[in-house]
């Protein structure tokens, strides 16, 4: 890897490596990484120092005890590491900017004073290539004969200034990062830029296709102040990163290119800003995406698609009025002869209405788009409109019509040879079959989507397909299969660091672990999900995670934590104006208060949940509420209401064919029979409950 130019307090031209060092060289044995961590911990007075700090110290000090002490001292004095309430915290941005102290410089000088000018000159040129460098590239940059290079490198290795790379036998590493930084900073700036430019030309000659070394070329071109080449290679490095779904790396290179571009570079800046906006949107960072897109609008050459992307970002943020205004304005701005654009924007407008549950307006916009697409025989537009109509029908639970529209969309995409579009249609069909409880058909559709994504090399698409198959396996009760598919998906998205998707995956993994009885593991996943959703501002999903965390804490006996999570979830659902979610949390609070023997509070929560659920027609929730009400009324001695609630709960559970809830209701009725002193009825109800619970595992065999 290579690093950007380090900052040091001294003027590079004033630092003379040949001057006499004021420090005496003391030979100390090098510590390994574990020993370095232990030493850092001892100096900080903790057994577990932050790993980011100990890694940084080891990288810079190379295990040298004197440098370890001075490196840590520099980090503390630079406030890169601080102690708050007995806990050491690391500011990684400040840590990367920590400069070599006078003491560090003196220690390094005491080593370098032993070298002759040829050895120092080779180190200067090696420092140009980074912390790790290729020996062949160094030979070309240094312009020395192979046999002379061998002798010089042998000396530097014996002095433990350079060491072989453990990962690549053709590369060497500076054993202490401070050594490289200090040598590099001592090179006069103009000469340094010239050496970086020479490195660019050597690499361009040695690697005609450039892709293998685009990141290295970007570094050297930037350090040589070659603006055009820097932007070119940063952009190529970003595209290279995107091929392997390294989104954060791609974002880094695009932003680097923007930093290099001089103001007024209107030709390249819009395209790079769009790429930055797209990456932020994919990562769920919608404010940053909007900032990038809005910068493009100021350019005359801005494409109408930027307005669509701004609208889509507003939808993700829940900004209804902003999104609608953008799409309506975009429609008015479309010239009469640009009907394909009109189809696209009307489709987006339909999706906006759909996102905010305005189904009639969504259908109206979609059918306008359909009429235009049919008139101009726009196959791509038709495939898009059929897809949108399928989503609308699905939202209205007209699954047969939704399947019909999605099959039409799939046929269009097959005619267009649109592989990713076909994968998307198969995915949508999987969702629809799932909603119809046709689980095998759903898995078949998801598997077809997965196969296509594998063929086109869409890693994220493959991961999403694994997630969806995992969800169906969860629905079937095949927990091991579900966990396997979800783990495949999680491995990819953890690499991509897509926080929005990670939040969903952690929730799903938590649900699987919960059903397998691994509650502590489930809680860990759910808490991770909460963290992800909080970071990206997805409040609805955060409320769900908080609710799940509350119920898991309850099962683990963590009563204070359970109540805290559930109360926070209730506050959030009330603020979001989501009555059904509010009813769910109130039901969970009812369970909590039952476990805490707070019968009055339990009754109050359950009555509120019942009132909301009845008003909203949430039949499946009604059975759970009334079953729990039967238990609470029994505990309070109100046996008449207990029987009424229990019998209603049983009837509702049978109507919705929920075997787990049927079994739970039989348990509630058994408790009621015990309270009434009817042992025969109690035994019968207990037996029915046990039979129901034992049959759950065979339901999908």
UniProtKB/TrEMBL annotation:
Origin, by domain of life?
Bacteria
- Span-the-membrane segments of this chain are none
Query: What Pfam families does the record point to?
Result: TPR_11 (PF13414), TPR_12 (PF13424), TPR_7 (PF13176)
Q: Where are the TPR repeats?
A: 270-303, 304-337, 343-376, 383-416, 423-456, 543-576
Compositional bias, Basic and acidic residues, is annotated for 1-19
Task: Tell whether Protease is among the UniProt keywords.
Answer: no
Q: Which InterPro entries match?
A: TPR-like_helical_dom_sf, TPR_rpt
Q: Which UniProt keywords apply?
A: TPR repeat
Q: Where is this region: Disordered?
A: 1-21
This chain belongs to which protein, by name? Tetratricopeptide repeat protein
- Which organism encodes this protein? candidate division TA06 bacterium
